[in-house]
């Protein structure tokens, strides 16, 4: 792994000239983890042309020493030295410092800025994220492991779908199963919705009870070494109506059409257009979600975000979600979501949980 992190640091330094900086200050925990290997919090990464410093405190110093590659770990005495003063100590003279403006508050940055006597500063955005959009084999393996945990957790939760169970019951059961199987937390707050509440794309689980004929939507993910999975499954409990079956079939067809457009070099928006065409043809276009999916990795929502204004052409090694949905207010909805790796000729599926529409009573 040491070589991987040193390579990432070299790639970051190679971007300095593009942003007219000769040092960069990272605040985002996921970006710091990607560049250094450190998995904790309360840390700040300063990378110059020739050196790299991870500034933390006594709570994380030992962990940082054991996890980081290519960085000198600085244990700051918070009672006697401000963060700005500490950063200033390690800046080169006449430094043009880029800082991650997306991950620091105005108040915090102002306090740091006031003590940077050696630097001119410039906000930068998306620099490390641009390196993260194509995953290496190790990263893909972590997401694959997280996805397999989610697959198994869902399989173990299926027997709990009985009349009277609540949305919260199912969410808690899924989360328990994922952690029991080795997930290091949850990729995001689990979505578990029944009946008409399935029209809420990001609804919060409630005490609503399952009854025959209800739609069910589950959206959840596991975490391994910071890397996340993200999967959605939709069902109907008991006998489905004709309209429910039509909605589900439309989403299945939309997902298949979208995935048929995925390969390296293809515009990401092609997949979105193929999905929308299917939903429009089925008569549900007005109730379709605007976007189709997103990158996934250390962040839940990474670049690319596949929506109408996306101009990105897919690259081999992108890990993205394909998640068409139909959401009809006061009636219900269906979403199906897979995690896939873009390849030169198509894609590799990472999520493998079955997709039966009918759950028997």
Describe this structure in words.
The chain is of the alpha+beta class. 32% of the residues lie in helices and 22% in strands. It has ten helices and 19 strands. The strands form six sheets. The chain has a six-stranded mixed sheet with strand order 4-3-2-1-5-6, sandwiched between helices. Strand 15 and strand 16 form a beta hairpin. Helix 7 (137-157) crosses helix 8 (167-180) and helix 9 runs antiparallel to helix 10 (268-281). The termini are far apart.
- Enumerate the spans where pLDDT stays under 50 for 5 or more consecutive residues: none
Q: Provide the residue-averaged pLDDT.
A: 97
Put simply, the count of helices is: 10
What percent of residues are in strands? 15-25%
Instruction: State the helical fraction.
Output: 25-40%
Report how far the terminal alpha carbons are from each other. 49 Å
Structural class: alpha+beta
Compute the CA-based radius of gyration.
23 Å
If strands are numbered along the chain, what order do they take across the biggest sheet? 4-3-2-1-5-6
The global form is: elongated
Total strand segments: 19
Largest sheet: 6 strands, mixed
List the helices and strands in order: HEHEEHEHEHEHHHEEEEEHHEEEEEEEE
Concise account of the structure shown:
This protein is of the alpha+beta class and 361 residues long.
């Amino acid at each position: 792994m040491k070589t991987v992190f040193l390579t990432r640091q070299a790639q970051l330094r190679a971007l300095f000239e593009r942003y007219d900086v000769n040092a960069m200050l990272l605040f985002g925990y996921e970006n710091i983890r990607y560049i250094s290997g450190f998995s904790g919090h309360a840390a700040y990464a300063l990378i110059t042309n020739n050196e790299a410093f991870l500034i933390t405190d006594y709570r994380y110093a030992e962990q940082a020493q054991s996890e980081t590659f290519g960085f000198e770990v600085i244990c700051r005495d918070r009672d006697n030295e401000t963060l700005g003063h500490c950063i200033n100590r390690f800046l080169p003279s006449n430094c043009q410092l880029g800082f991650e403006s997306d991950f620091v508050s105005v108040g915090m940055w102002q306090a740091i800025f006031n003590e940077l006597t050696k630097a001119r500063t410039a906000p930068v955005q998306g620099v490390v994220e641009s390196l993260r959009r194509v995953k290496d084999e190790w990263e893909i393996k972590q997401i694959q492991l997280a996805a397999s945990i989610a697959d198994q957790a869902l399989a173990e939760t299926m027997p709990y779908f009985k009349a009277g169970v609540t949305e919260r019951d199912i969410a808690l059961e899924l989360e328990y199963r994922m952690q029991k199987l080795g997930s290091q937390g949850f990729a995001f707050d689990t979505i578990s919705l029944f009946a008409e509440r399935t029209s809420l794309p990001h609804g919060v689980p409630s005490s609503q009870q399952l009854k025959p004929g209800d739609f069910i939507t589950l959206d959840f993910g596991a975490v391994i070494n910071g890397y996340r999975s993200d999967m959605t499954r939709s069902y109907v409990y008991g006998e489905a109506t004709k309209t429910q079956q039509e909605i589900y079939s439309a989403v299945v067809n939309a997902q298949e059409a979208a995935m048929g457009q995925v390969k390296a070099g293809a515009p990401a928006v092609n997949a979105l257009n193929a999905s929308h065409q299917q939903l429009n043809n089925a008569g549900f276009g007005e109730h379709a979600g605007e976007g189709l999916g997103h990158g996934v990795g250390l962040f839940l929502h990474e670049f690319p975000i596949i929506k109408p204004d996306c101009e990105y052409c897919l690259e081999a090694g992108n890990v993205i979600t394909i998640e068409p949905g139909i959401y009809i207010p006061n009636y219900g909805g269906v979403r199906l979501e897979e995690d896939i790796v873009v390849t030169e000729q198509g894609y590799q599926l990472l999520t493998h949980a079955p997709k039966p529409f009918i759950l028997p009573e």
